[in-house]
Design goal:
This protein has 2 domains: 31-190, Sandwich (Jelly Rolls); 197-280, no CATH class. The longest helix has 27 residues, at 2-28. The protein is of the alpha+beta class. The radius of gyration is 24 Å and the shape is elongated. It contains 5 helices and 19 strands. It has helices spanning 2-28, 184-191, 219-222, 234-255, 262-280, and strands spanning 29-37, 40-43, 50-52, 58-60, 64-67, 72-77, 82-85, 90-94, 97-108, 116-119, 124-127, 131-136, 142-148, 150-155, 158-163, 166-170, 180-181, 197-198, 230-231. The protein has a 17-stranded mixed beta sheet that branches. Strands 18-19 form a two-stranded antiparallel ribbon.
Length: 283
């Protein structure tokens, strides 16, 4: 009887430990990498090792992420919030927010009332469901622009409320600047949100609600985008246009004598799509 009791107790303790570990992993997992173009590295918690990240990489509390040149990373949080990270940026993920060392980030906080905070060397921003971006240079100077909603920005124990269409800056050892207006369309253009949506290289029709030309994404772009919708920015569109132009030239040299050759038709289709997108972004 005593042996049975001890065995039962051991089984109970084992199950309890498994449950605790499972719960801890659930809490520490805050999202994953939904898009990545270029190279970025991740450092897990207190482990002093940077490793390259890839699409669908899980993001945990206390992870640090840094991006290289010509890199763009999108992190999708478990609650639906979205974080976009540009080149030469370093951030640290916290349970209810983000700590920015330097660089540029964009946020869409979808849950109203969620206590999300962004901390930089010179300011603390409290968010309750909004769209905004943050730019931090190597001196710690921080600029926050709000596209939707309102953000409370604190520096040197002074707080200003930054509403949609305005921005503030915070210098080292200074209080936040009085919010000033800016053109939201410029910020949207910078982050690529007035662009044509691209559909993966499956030749799926565009969604009916998207009043846009019927374009498709080239195969090399399909490797780095989701299967639903993706917005290409200026740098990516220009790069794709130039690559498609070169591929079409190569195809014409190789297969020009046969205008119906599959490789030539494929190159022409890619070029036409890239050309439409690139021209649309010049408007």
């Amino acid at each position: 009887m005593k042996k049975i009791t001890i065995c039962t107790l051991l089984v109970f303790v084992s199950l309890l430990l498994l449950s605790v570990n499972s719960f801890a992993n659930e809490v520490s997992n805050i999202g994953d990498v939904s898009h990545i173009i270029g190279e970025a590295e991740l450092k897990r918690g207190n482990i002093d090792l940077w490793t390259k990240i890839k699409k669908h990489e899980p993001i945990k509390v206390n992870d640090m992420l840094r991006t290289g040149n010509s890199t763009k990373v999108t992190v999708k949080y478990a609650d639906g919030a979205i974080l976009k990270i540009k080149s030469n940026t370093q951030v640290e993920f916290k349970l209810n927010g983000l700590r920015m060392r330097f660089g540029k980030t964009w946020y869409k906080i979808v849950k109203k009332g969620s206590g999300f905070e962004v901390q930089t060397p010179t300011m603390l921003a409290g968010i309750r469901g909004t769209v905004f971006d943050v730019d931090v240079d190597y001196t710690g100077k921080s600029r926050l622009r709000v596209m939707e909603g309102t953000v409370a920005v604190t520096g040197q124990e002074n707080t200003v409320f930054v509403k949609a269409g305005t921005y503030t800056e915070v210098l080292k050892n200074s209080m936040p600047m009085k919010p000033k207006p800016f053109k939201v369309s410029d910020a949207s253009k910078e982050w690529g949100f007035n662009k044509l949506p691209l559909i993966p290289f499956m030749f799926k029709p565009l969604k009916k609600e998207l009043k846009s030309v019927d374009v498709t994404a080239p195969a090399n772009v399909a490797d780095v985008i989701d299967t639903e919708e993706y917005e290409m920015d200026y740098d990516e569109a220009e790069k794709e246009y130039k690559e498609a132009d070169n591929k079409l030239l190569e195809a014409n040299i190789k297969y020009g004598s046969n205008p119906n050759h599959p490789e030539l038709l494929k190159a022409e289709k890619r070029y036409n799509s890239a050309n439409k997108i690139w021209k649309s972004l010049q408007k």
